[in-house]
């Protein structure tokens, strides 16, 4: 690629350089891959092989017969115009994900990691489903970590985390999960 750039991306000069340096282009079809001896002895033959390709490409390009551009270029912008997921659909998708009866510890962590990557604080019903998944897996540490992550995602908005804990209190009591504050982890 650097050599092609040196020649100003002029294909003709690049191929001439390759011919002078005797760089083999290799056979492009696997049918006639027998030592390339037949193709070297018979360069003017119109058969397939690397020497035929080299002879075709080493000629200067034919003059253009049409006055228009060789390739039509269309300007395309890469916007995502797909369907946008509503908040309710997002919540339902994550609740369904965490409510899978056969969810394993890796899927739980992967789901929480993906969810935390979003620019939002998860709704209490999503966290409820994740905490119930932790209980099914008998993973108390992940349950406490989920609550810590929710507290961190709330950031400077001090009213969000207490609201989430208030909404989750019945679930926390039912499952026997302590908050990080009850465990003294907020002071560490």
* Low-pLDDT segments: 1-5, 20-45
Q: Write the H/E string, N to C.
A: HHHHHHHHH
Largest β sheet strand count, sense and barrel closure:
none
Q: How is the quaternary structure best described?
A: single chain
User: Which fold name fills CATH's third level, the topology of the domain at 87-187?
Assistant: Serine Threonine Protein Phosphatase 5, Tetratricopeptide repeat
Task: Supply database-style keywords.
single chain, 188 residues, Serine Threonine Protein Phosphatase 5, Tetratricopeptide repeat, membrane
Would you give an account of this structure?
This protein has 188 residues and is an all-alpha fold. The protein is built from nine helices and no strands. The protein has a domain of 101 residues: Cytochrome c oxidase, subunit Va/VI (Serine Threonine Protein Phosphatase 5, Tetratricopeptide repeat). Helix 5 packs parallel to helix 7, helix 7 packs antiparallel against helix 8 and helix 7 runs parallel beside helix 9. The chain starts with a helix and ends in a 13-residue tail after the last helix.
